[in-house]
Amino acid sequence: MESKDSNHKFSLNHLPYCIHYDGETNTDSYFKPTTQITPEGEIHTCSFRGHLIKGVKVTIPHGYKGIVVQNINENTHLSVTDDSSEDALLGDVISTTDKTFSVLNNFEGWIEWSPEIEPSKQDPSINALSWIKVSDIIHECI
């Protein structure tokens, strides 16, 4: 994935861990995957906090594009309903949130990582792409 700054390349990785951080990191110093070519494709291997992880490249289907977005504005509005609304009780507080997103980058695929074994087509992130194919089939003109 190319950054808007053409001197800096990005790669997208989906790790099987919950990391409570969303800022920039110096991944080049700590995250150094190796790639092995096999008859099934490329297998990536790395260590994350002392644990072996294996990864495979996942490609988004033709005609689709992944995007990386950042929430740049979140405004929450509170309103009180009146008794003329059939679905609401008198005095119900309704919270609506408006979010504004900025597109930071786009991507055509990512590396899906799994602890100790190669990710399979049954992994949720990979399996989700099969729904795109199903959607294309059911919306196809007959």
TrEMBL record:
Name by which UniProt lists this protein: Ribonuclease H2 subunit C
GO terms for biological process, alphabetical: RNA catabolic process
Entries under Pfam families matching the protein: RNase_H2_suC (PF08615)
Cellular component terms (Gene Ontology): ribonuclease H2 complex
Database matches in InterPro entries: RNase_H2_suC
